[in-house]
Structure of Anaerobic regulatory protein:
Amino acid sequence: MAENWEFLRQVPVFADLSPEELQHIVSLALLRRYRKNMYIFMEGEPGDAIYFVKKGAIKLFQVLEDGREKILHFVQEGEIFAEVVLFEGGPYPATAETLEDTEVGIIRNADMERLLSRHGEMAVKIIKVMSRRLRQAQEHIRDLALKGAYGRLASTLLQLARDYGTPREDGVTIDLNLSQQELASLIGTSRETVARILSDFKRLGAVGVERQRITILSPQKLAGWD
């Protein structure tokens, strides 16, 4: 892990630490590599570590009583996840699965707690991450309750573009390889419904789709459904 310490500056939680402090993080962190569609941890397993993404992307999801998958959110390079068990303890509340080949850093909770006792600003940053995700969860619950499938998908695509978008000449591409089933899981509908809505959005010139990458061509047209 020592040769990767400069990367830690790109993780907002660690951005303000000195080189010496970052080296201390390096001494605590384990680096692991996962292939696409591998599980990092499962819902219900003991929550004993906090994670951050060095490379790749991850989805966090829960399995509903009827066996369907409910995606909670996605995690990209530079973001932390499983932070809730750092303060709460107990089991992981969701399953983490890679969307592509991924490298993650792992810091055990006991080590992280000692680190936070010396760097209170890091604790504040982690709490801000948790607050942002709570706000997104509340907005998602509102969308599920108040919007139809078209509105939910439009709102979700716009949010993904804000969080994971890369500007292109023709629009903003969401830098996540998302299947129609994953989008369906995210907005609480069927894959067939997502396929039909995406087809309509494409026909209207609102989005483009190529190899599971979605480009927002006209945010204004999507906002009309939001």
